Amino acid sequence: MAKARTPLGITAKQGLVTMVVVLVLGLAGSMMELYYDWHATRTQLATQVSQTLDTISGSAVEAAYQLSPDLSVRVVDGLLGHDIVAAVRLYDNFGDLLAEGRRPGDGAGSRLAQMLFGDMAEFKRTLVRDRGGANDGATVGELKVSLSVGAMTRGFYDRALVNAALGLLRSLAISALVVAVFYVMITRPLVRLAQLVGRIDPTRPGALLLPPLPGHETDELGQLAGSLNAMLVAAQQGMDQRDRAQAENVRLGTELEVSRRIQQMVLPTLGELAEIKGLDLAAYMEAATEVGGDYYDILKGENGRVRIGIGDVTGHGLESGVVMLMTQSAVRTLVTCDERDAVRLLDVLNRTIYHNTQRMGCDKNLTLALLDYRPEDSDAAAGHLRISGQHESVIVVRVGGDVELVDTIDLGLPLGLVDDIGSFVAETSIPLHAGDTVVLYTDGITEAADRDHNLYGLERLCETVRRHADQPATAIKDAVIADVKRHAGDQPLYDDLTLIVMKQN
Amino acid sequence: METVITGESYSLDWNPETRTAALKGILRLNGLEEYAPIARFLLDAVPHGSMTLDLRGLEFLNSSGIATLSKFVIEIRNRKTVDLTVLGSKAVAWQGKSLVNLGKLMPALRMEFV
C-alpha cells in the first residue's frame, strides 16, 4: 500500500501563501519603482543632453559659420568626451559634413535597451548664429548626436538589479516575520489545541478536558477551548445518561422477560387439563405489557377431585411474579398434603405469603380463591364446588341460561395484608349439574378499558358467557377473550388477563 | 380545600376544616411504590381525632390502590388515635366490594355509602 502523503501543516501552508502574496505585491511595487525610475532616467538624460548641447552649441555655431575643420573636430571630440554620446556629426548650412566622430565599439545595445531608450537615441540641433543677442539669426548648420543606448541603460540596469534584489530580500523578510508572528500568536496554540483535541477519546469525551492555553486564557482561543470543554462535558453527560437509560431499559426488559417466564412456566399444561375427565376445562392467561402477577392452577386429585386456584398479586414485574410463584408452590404443597379445611389452608397460605413478603420488604398482597370440585358419588354427571378465599365473583351459568354470581368478599381477605386472616375465611358450596358452566377470572378481564375508559365489566362478561354457554369450554373461553379484545381495541393491556371456564360434563 | 397531589387522571384534595381527604378520578398507578406519596399524605394528615376519607368521586381504583387503602386502614387501626370515616358511593362498581374489606380490617371504621 502506498504511504499516505503527509498533509501540509498549517504553518507551511501559511508560509507559502504569505510568500506568494508578498512576492506578487513586491514584484508589483518593484515594477512601479522601475517605471518611475525609467521615466526619471529619460527626463534626466534629455536634460543632460540638452544642457551639453547648450554648452557646446556656441562653438558649433562658430565652427559651422566659419566652416572651420579644426573647430569642428574640437566640437565633435568635446561631445564625444561625454560617456553617453556615441557619434557626432556636424553639418554646415549646405548639408555638407564638416566633422564626424564615433566612439569605437559602442553598439546599438540589446533589444530591451532599444525598447526602453531607443526612441531618444538621436538628437538634432539646428545651429543658428545670434546677431546682437537676438535669436533671429540665420541658420549656419546642424549638429546630429547619436547617444549610446548601452551607456544610457547601464545605470538603469544597475539600479533595477539592486532594486529587484532588495525587493526579494524585503519579501522574504516580511514573509518570515508574518509567519513567525502568526506562528507564535495563533498557529502554535491552535496546533496545540488540535493535538489536545486529537487525544480526546470519542467514546469517553469528558474523560480528558483541555487544559488552559498559556497566554490565551481570555481571548478567542481561550473561549474556543472553554466552549469545547463545555461541549465535551455535555456530550459525556448525554452519553452517561443514555448509557444509564440503556442499562435500566435492559434491566427492566430482562426483568419483565424473567417475570413473564416465571408466570408461564408453572401454568398447568393442556395435557393435564385433558386428563381431567369429569369436567370440560379451558384456561387462558395473557401477561400485560408490564407483566402483572396473575395466578391460576388446576390440579387433578383422587377420585375425580379437581382443585383450582385463581388469584391476582398486586403490582407488576419481578416481585409480583415471585409472589405468584410462591403462591403456586404453597397451594400445591398444601393440596398435595391433602389439606381439606379451607380455613386452615388459607390461614397457612396467608402466613406464608405474609412473612415472605415481609422478608422481601415488598408489600405485595393478593386476592386468592380456592375451589375444590368433587363429583357426586351417585352421579358422575353432577358434582359439588366448594369455594373459599376472597377474589372476584364466581360466575355460574346454569343449563337454561340462569346466571348466578357467587360473591367471595365474605369468604376471606387478601393474602399478605395482615398476619392473621383466620377469622375472615369462610366457605360456600354450590351444586353443579350436567351442562352447568362456571367461569373464574381476574380483574384484567372485567377492568379491560376502552379508549374512553369504559370498563368491560362483569355484566358484559356474564352476558357473553351466557350467550355461549351451550358450547364447549374452549369455545366459551375464545368467545370471551375475543369480546374483551374487541372492547379494548387499540388500548394497551394494563393488566394480565386470566380466564378459566369449566363445564360439568 | 386544597389540591395536595394531582396526576394525569386523578387528584387528592384536602380540606383542613372538615379534615376530609378526597380522592377523585381514575387511579391506575403501578404498584405500591407509586401510591406511596398518597399513602404518606393520608397517614400524616391527622395525628389524632376525626378524619374522613371521601372516595365518592373515585371512579376507578386498581388492586394496588385497594391494597394501599387497606394498609392505610390497618395503620390507622393500629394507631388507635384516629376516628376514621370512609365515604363511598353505591354508584361506583369497585367500591361496593372493596370497601367492605376496609371495614373488616378495622371494625371501628365508620362506612357511609351515599
Provide a quick synopsis of the model.
Chain B: This is STAS domain-containing protein. The complex is a heterodimer of chains A (505) and B (114). Chain A is α+β, with helices and mostly antiparallel strands.
User: What characteristic shape of chain B results from the CA principal axes?
Assistant: globular
What string gives the helices and strands of chain B in order? EEEHEEHEHE
Count of helical stretches of chain B = 3
Helix fraction of chain B, binned, reads 25-40%
Helix-strand string of chain A: HHEEHEEHHHEEEHHEEEEEEHHHE
Number of helices of chain A: 11
Number of strands of chain B: 7
CATH topology of chain B: Transcription Regulator spoIIAA
Q: How would you state the average pLDDT of chain B, rounded? A: 90
Report how far the terminal alpha carbons of chain B are from each other: 21 Å
Q: Characterize the largest beta sheet of chain B: strand count, sense, and whether it forms a barrel.
A: 7 strands, mixed
Average pLDDT rating of chain A = 89
Fraction of residues in β-strands of chain B:
35-45%
Give the low-confidence spans of chain B.
none
- CATH fold description of the largest domain in chain A: Phosphatase 2c, domain 1
What's the CATH class of chain B, please?
Alpha Beta
The total number of structural domains of chain B is: 1
CATH architecture assignment name of chain B? 2-Layer Sandwich
CATH superfamily of the largest domain in chain A: PPM-type phosphatase domain
Radius of gyration of chain A: 60 Å
